[in-house]
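In this supplementary section we document a worked example of the pipeline. Step one takes a protein sequence of length 212 as its only input; no multiple sequence alignment statistics are reported here. Step two produces a three-dimensional model, which step three serialises into structure tokens for compact storage. The input and output of this example are shown verbatim.
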Amino acid sequence: MERQARRQQVLQHAKRIFARKGYHRTNISDIVARARIARGTFYLYFENKKELFEELLEQVLGELRLRIRRLRIGPEEPEPVEQLRDNLRRVLSFLITEWELTDILLNHSTGFDPELDSRIREFYERVADQIQRSLDLGIQMGLVRECDTRAVAYCILGGIKEVVGQASRHRRREIGRLAEEILDFGLRGVARPDLLAGLHRTEAVAAGASAK
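The serialised model returned by step three reads:
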């Protein structure tokens, strides 16, 4: 347990340095100085800087899995929209609290290390997978319109990335408000309801005309 605690301590120190200096400008000397350990001690826990960083990525993905819960339908279950709202609040709370790691993920400079770039892309693909599975389930449950769930998953992921990036940079903590805006945008878009109703009527007339 002591070894595991010390290893986690090294990860925490490294995360802060990555956020301040960026992954590529951080070196092992920075990490061991911040963690107050010998260089040889570092190598007891990690083979290199990249292995340490990849473990941080895995920790984030694991935390997101815990916070994105499967929607449940039943007489004693909360309304689906409320469950979505709770999912968003949990995810936003974690990402904004862990602002150092969020900053690394959003501002990681590509082109220096193809293997690491690939790991970052893989990380986002796996997050998109989670969102897509939720959308597919929503369609099955009759809660989500028929759509290209992969494309929509990327739209949602891109929007959340930008909102979280701005929130973490400005240290915003209005989790409830942010979650509400993201949820409202996802469910309604930005058009006024009366404009949407007019669009639907126009589409219906056009469809009728083409049928003739």
